[in-house]
């Protein structure tokens, strides 16, 4: 039936029809638009959009939906099984996002998320999506273009965050970073200057995630009035130096401890280091963090290639039990070692813990 | 603004079917609409609420009293709301969401909206139509066109049984 030239003037129909054409017991369709839009906002995007099919009364209601999350998990699984399908599926994805945002009417957005294996080749579309989201005062923005080959030097094909958005705000009036509370850029090329621009121009930014970017080498996250609570820079392996001075920062994830300079971080309680550290070097490496280590409640370390360690401050006796080992420092009282295989390195590690951990009260070995 | 009198005030609310209700000002001002009237000094006599009937207003006042008696504990407030709405049928919920909208009570508005959304969640188009008595006014061609346009929303949904 589709494609036979059926044309429907969706906008006119409900008006022409008026309230009276609804059957008496269709109470829900008689509710005002604003209420129906609020009801739909409690559904997922997919379910809200599906209500368009109910009747002509519902066709445009979902177009005010405030959280656009273009999730295509099933298509990504298809591609993972057969990469031949990538071209076709990514084309469909881009078309889907384009079609939805073309007809979307919301003037403000709580969330805009795109997540697909997309490269620079569709940069024009991606830039339009960004314009769409940023001009609607988006609060939570996520671009995740994680590719199958993310670790194999294909970063040159990553989408570059457009320079034109990073001019002084007044020069691009419709683009607005002021409402941004959470920004996540995965497999997007973004420079340190760009991130510093976000920090300066997003007064409400509480969460910043930048991963898999090759352009990032030096970064300063500094400012007495930064609202930033969570900073995640994992897998930014070319990062040479990071200076952090952020009074509200609670959690920080960086690839490695080298080049990390922590200054004013009174609220920091969780620190994760992604790159593997030979455990013999732990003490030496951690001394770099001496300024803040005693305030940490959770410290994730990745030791050797197999053994994972996590250091947990003794002030929290109910330290989180993760699939990692809790590594002690001078205040640690409880330690749990998961994945103990009895290898000589494991035994050595336990001794290392016992030696370094003077306040240890409890040692749990979980084979 | 009303002059500060210092004594606890009781307001009289009048429904559109002329029922009168007494309610503590501290509970009634959960409604921004009523709060504005109080602040504008219009609360001296009877506050007429032209868009709410007596049955719904009684229910809303029960909610106002119940929720304002709970100290600032979001968990407890949420469980009160859940319990308060648990035995309400859709007709009542529709009346309440209209009243909450008119009275500008965002917490009640959100709770009732979420409750209605919950009924629709994960249900087929046919089921939702039957449940709420929604009349499908599309021609078969139109319906097919809308479905085609929103094809992506049917991924992972069990086949509709109303065709």
TrEMBL record, chain A:
CDD domains, per database record: F-box_AtFBL13-like (cd22160)
Gene3D superfamilies, per the entry: 1.20.1280.50, Ribonuclease Inhibitor
Short name of any one Pfam family annotated for the protein: F-box
F-box domain location: 25-73
InterPro entries with a match to the protein in the record: At1g61320/At1g61330-like, F-box-like_dom_sf, F-box_AtFBL13-like, F-box_dom, FBD, LRR_At1g61320_AtMIF1, LRR_dom_sf
SUPFAM superfamilies named among the record's database cross-references: F-box domain, L domain-like
Superkingdom per UniProt: Eukaryota
Residues spanning the membrane: none
Protein name stated in the entry: F-box domain-containing protein
Classification of source organism: Eukaryota, Viridiplantae, Streptophyta, Embryophyta, Tracheophyta
UniProtKB/TrEMBL annotation, chain B:
Keywords recorded for this protein, A-Z: Ubl conjugation pathway
The protein's name: SKP1-like protein
Pathway: Protein modification; protein ubiquitination
Any one of the GO BP annotations: jasmonic acid mediated signaling pathway
Superkingdom of the organism of origin: Eukaryota
Record text on subunit structure and interactions: Part of a SCF (SKP1-cullin-F-box) protein ligase complex.
Family, as annotated: Belongs to the SKP1 family.
SMART domains assigned: Skp1
Leader peptide range in chain numbering: none
Domain SKP1 component dimerisation: 108-152
Domain SKP1 component POZ: 11-65
């Amino acid at each position: 039936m589709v494609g036979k030239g059926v044309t429907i003037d969706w906008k006119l129909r409900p008006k022409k029809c008026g309230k009276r054409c609804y059957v008496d017991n269709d109470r829900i369709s008689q509710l005002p638009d604003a209420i129906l839009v609020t009801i739909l906002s409690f559904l997922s995007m997919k379910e809200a959009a599906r209500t368009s099919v109910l009747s002509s009364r519902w066709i445009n209601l979902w177009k005010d939906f405030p959280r656009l999350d273009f999730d295509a998990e099933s298509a990504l699984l298809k591609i993972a099984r057969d990469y031949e399908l990538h071209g076709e599926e990514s084309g469909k994805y881009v078309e889907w996002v384009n079609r939805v945002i073309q007809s979307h009417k919301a003037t403000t957005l709580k969330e805009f998320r795109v997540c697909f294996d997309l490269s620079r080749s569709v940069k024009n579309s991606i830039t339009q999506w960004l314009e769409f989201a940023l001009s609607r005062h988006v609060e939570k923005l996520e671009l995740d273009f994680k590719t199958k080959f993310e670790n194999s030097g294909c970063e040159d094909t990553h989408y570059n965050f457009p320079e034109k958005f990073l001019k002084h705000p007044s020069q691009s009036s419709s683009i607005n970073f002021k409402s941004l509370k959470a920004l996540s850029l995965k497999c997007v090329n973004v420079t340190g200057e760009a991130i510093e621009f976000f920090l300066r121009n997003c007064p409400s930014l509480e969460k910043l995630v930048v991963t898999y970017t090759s352009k990032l080498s030096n970064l300063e996250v500094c400012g007495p009035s930064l609202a930033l609570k969570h900073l995640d820079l994992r897998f930014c392996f070319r990062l040479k130096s990071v200076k952090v001075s952020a009074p509200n920062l609670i959690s920080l994830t960086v690839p490695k401890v080298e080049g990390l300079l922590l200054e004013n971080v009174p609220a920091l309680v969780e620190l994760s280091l992604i790159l593997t550290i030979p455990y013999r070097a732990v003490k030496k490496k951690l001394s770099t963090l001496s300024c803040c280590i005693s305030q940490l409640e959770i410290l994730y370390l990745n030791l050797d290639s197999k053994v994972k360690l996590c250091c947990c401050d003794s002030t929290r006796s109910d330290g989180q039990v993760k699939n990692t080992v809790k590594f002690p420092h001078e205040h640690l009282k409880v330690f749990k070692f998961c994945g103990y295989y009895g290898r000589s390195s494991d035994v050595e590690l336990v001794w290392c813990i016992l030696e370094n951990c003077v306040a240890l009260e409890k040692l749990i070995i979980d084979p | 603004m009303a002059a500060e009198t210092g004594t606890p005030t009781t307001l009289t609310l009048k429904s559109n079917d002329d029922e009168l209700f007494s309610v503590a000002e501290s509970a009634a001002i959960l409604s921004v609409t009523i709060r504005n009237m109080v602040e504008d000094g219009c609360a001296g006599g009877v506050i007429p609420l032209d868009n709410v009937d007596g049955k719904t207003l009684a229910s809303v006042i029960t909610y106002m009293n119940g929720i304002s008696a709970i100290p600032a504990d979001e968990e407890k407030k949420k469980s009160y709301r859940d319990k308060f709405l648990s035995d309400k049928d859709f007709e009542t919920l529709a009346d309440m969401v209209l009243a909450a909208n008119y009275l500008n009570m965002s917490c009640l508005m959100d709770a009732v909206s979420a409750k209605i959304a919950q009924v629709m969640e994960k249900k087929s188009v046919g089921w939702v139509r039957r449940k709420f008595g929604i009349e499908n006014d599309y021609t078969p061609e139109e319906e097919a066109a809308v479905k085609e346009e929103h094809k992506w929303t049917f991924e992972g949904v069990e086949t509709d049984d109303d065709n």
